[in-house]
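One such shown below:
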Amino acid sequence: MSQLHLIDHPMIQHKLTIMRKKETGSKDFRILLREISLLMGYEITRDLPLDDVEIETPICKMTAKKVSGRKLAIVPILRAGLGMVEGLQTLVPVAKVGHIGLYRNEETHNPVVYYCKLPEDISQRLVIVTDPMLATGGSSCDALSMLKERGCNNIRLMCLVAAPEGIARVQREHPDVDIYVASVDECLNKDAYIVPGLGDAGDRIFGTK
């Protein structure tokens, strides 16, 4: 069974509270999302392996630690997942970025795929899938399935806010994928939005509503 990692650092919780406020505008929302993504990135990359390397400081030679040759890829679920990429890239500038385009059918609430572009060596990388909202879990599960079809077997899902229903579905359909979230909220409403949530993340990031 996949593990749920709740990253509840005080600064993450503080910034998330500001993001939730309905009066927070798109500019501040984007900045806060980027900052939280960077902070969450410290935890999601905590177990990266290290190699010993010989370096020379201004004082002397020494053996120091360096992240080993393990390759990373960041794959946002479009469009809201884009808002989390910059924070992770600040932490891991050499990570490659793929894109999976999904949108939710407003009547069925099911995800519809419209775009997929991934690095050629995606199967050889640790893949971090980003999406601010884990609601029904439909989009995340479809994205994870698409990655596995391309040979990926080392995937982590990083979300800002999650509903118990979405967590349960990902754990049921993808028990090998760990989930990293900043908050587990109460439930989904009849329109499949997270309660209390923070509204439509895509609209709030890009100012489209």
